[in-house]
Amino acid sequence: MTEDRQPEIQDIEDQIEEDAEDSSDLEERLEEAERERDQFRTLALRYKADLENYKKRAASELNETRERANAQLLLKLIGLSDDFNRALDYIPEDTSSDGWVEGLRLTQRSIENVMQTEGLSRIEAAIGQPFDVYEHEAVFFEPTNEVDEGTVVRVVRNGYKLRNRVLRAAQVSVAQAIQPQENTETEIQDQEAR
């Protein structure tokens, strides 16, 4: 009876061996699939991070472009405000109460309100204040010993900041110390000869 069962036992052992090989092959395929899954997951996370960084960079660049365009427009508005101020400075006293003059003043105030609303503020450049290279532009140097050297003695044109960034530096005249003249030997001899 054991001999009759020998072929059956052999078939079962062969089947077990075949199933073991299939199982080993399936395990290898499963491990390979898990490695691929992990690689794809890593790639997906990297691409997601890249996309987020791109979105942030694009939003930042768009904001910077808006700020530059806004700054350019505000610079033009500053020029317009300067023109109105010059025009108002030259209005004769006898016409200063006329309606059209008041209209110019109201328009000037409206322009200044828009500038202030957009975050523009005037740089305080006052006479007697020390020269500040970050906010002032020296357009003249005035020789004087009445004030300290490097002091603002005249404001030529107002400057403006857009939030905390200088949009247009204030143009100022700066005090420069008068140097005493040194007499040369020839000049001294000429004076002695007289």
What features would you describe in this structure?
With 194 residues, the protein is of the alpha+beta class. The protein folds into two domains: 1-118, no CATH class; 120-194, Head domain of nucleotide exchange factor GrpE (Nucleotide Exchange Factor Grpe, Chain A, domain 2, Roll). It is 60% helix and 17% strand. The chain has a three-stranded antiparallel beta sheet with strand order 1-4-5. Strands 2-6-3 form a three-stranded mixed beta sheet, with no helix packed on it. The chain is elongated. The termini are far apart. The mean pLDDT is 86.
The number of strands is: 6
**Oligomeric status of the shown chains?**
single chain
Q: List the helices and strands in order.
A: HHEEEEEEH
Give the N-terminus to C-terminus distance in angstroms: 156 Å
Radius of gyration: 42 Å
Domain unit count = 2
- Average pLDDT, rounded to a whole number, is 86
Report the biggest beta sheet as strand number plus sense, adding barrel if it closes: 3 strands, antiparallel
Total of helices: 3
